[in-house]
């Protein structure tokens, strides 16, 4: 693997947690391995590895974009990642309020519903 892949795996584990990454790695097959390698190198090894903006800010941007795009499974995953990135529930709520104005109330409403359920699963009081 490349240096970017190694850095990406390090960052991916720091953000999403070892349990999540271990499950994803165990589920990887020859069919999706090239895709997993690509996202580890690009999303995690390039974008998330950059220190231009904080992991907290990246987390909030990512959540807003995922909600705006209706990528609900990823919203829950990145809500769980806030435990590692430092984004607070209040900041996540504000990001979703931006989604309401700029991408639509239904998307923000559903993202807030997912956030509430995910925080409850995490034992985070909101």
From TrEMBL:
Q: Which keywords annotate this record?
A: Lyase
Q: Does the keyword Transmembrane helix apply?
A: no
**Annotated Gene Ontology MF terms?**
4-carboxymuconolactone decarboxylase activity; peroxiredoxin activity
Q: What class of enzyme is it?
A: lyase
InterPro entries, sorted: 4CMD/NDH-1_regulator (IPR052512), AhpD-like (IPR029032), CMD-like (IPR003779), Decarb_PcaC (IPR012788)
Q: Where is the Carboxymuconolactone decarboxylase-like domain?
A: 34-117
Q: What is its EC number?
A: 4.1.1.44
- The entry's protein name is 4-carboxymuconolactone decarboxylase
**Species in which this protein is naturally found:** Profundibacter amoris
């Amino acid at each position: 693997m490349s240096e970017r892949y190694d850095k990406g795996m390090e960052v991916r584990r720091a953000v999403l947690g070892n349990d999540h990454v271990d499950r994803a790695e165990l589920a990887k097959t020859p069919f999706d391995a090239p895709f997993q390698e690509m996202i580890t190198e690009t999303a995690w090894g390039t974008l998330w590895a950059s220190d231009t903006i904080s992991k907290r800010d990246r987390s909030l941007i990512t959540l807003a974009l995922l909600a705006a795009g209706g990528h609900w499974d990823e919203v829950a995953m990145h809500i769980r990642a806030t435990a590692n990135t430092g984004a607070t529930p209040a900041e996540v709520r504000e990001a979703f309020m931006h989604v309401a104005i700029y991408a639509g109330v239904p998307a923000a409403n559903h993202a807030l519903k997912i956030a509430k359920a995910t925080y409850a699963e995490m034992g985070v009081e909101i």
